[in-house]
Amino acid sequence: MNLNLPQSWKPYLQTEFKKDYFKDLLSFVDSEYQNNTCFPLEKDVFNAFKYCSFQDVKVVILGQDPYHDIGQANGLCFSVNDHIKHPPSLVNIFKEIESDLDVEYPKNGNLLRWAKQGVLLLNATLTVRAHQAGSHQNKGWEIFTDTVIKIINDNKEHVVFLLWGGYAKKKIKLINTNKHHVLTSGHPSPLSANRGYWFGNKHFSQTNNVLSSAGLDIIEW
After folding, report:
1. In the chain, what are the domain boundaries?
2. Which CDD domains does the record match to this protein (predicted)?
3. Does the pTM exceed 0.85?
4. CATH superfamily entry for domain 8-214
5. Choosing from 24, 30, 65, 217, which is the catalytic residue?
């Protein structure tokens, strides 16, 4: 795999590439991509970093696993490629934005527009085998992405972390809540949302209020 990590992140993450766990992870991922269909495309694995520079990070949204069906995953959590049908979790995210901010439901499920405004769309696991959810979990990606969270925590201020669902909420232990802002809710998946744990969380307006109070540009969700 080509480690095409963007320049702005290299000073913070370059040392991870030399660690044994990461070498083992790369070996596993290379074998998976050679022998199976995997997502996202290799060139898109580090898109979360490519489209949101370290300097620009204002908001972090944590996902767990890339989408595992054909053509969906594009390296940004919860995001899908252009012209792809919106998965259920993304539908519920857009519905909440619609009611929270009184804006029209977006036609395009590609969240690149968020990344370019300083939203780091980070999955805990950056790759997956086709049609096998969780197939690349516990191979080392989580160590790497936890390190990313710690680096943001240590080197930035006033970042808004959106932790949706039980898995993401566990990451609060990596975050200094005295200098960052953490918003938690249920996961936007139908299972959680339909039980009342997602809709009405107003995370998008709350995020913009926090950014505005810190003198930062708000996100056009």
Report:
1. 8-214
2. UDG-F1-like
3. yes
4. Uracil-DNA glycosylase-like domain (3.40.470.10)
5. 65
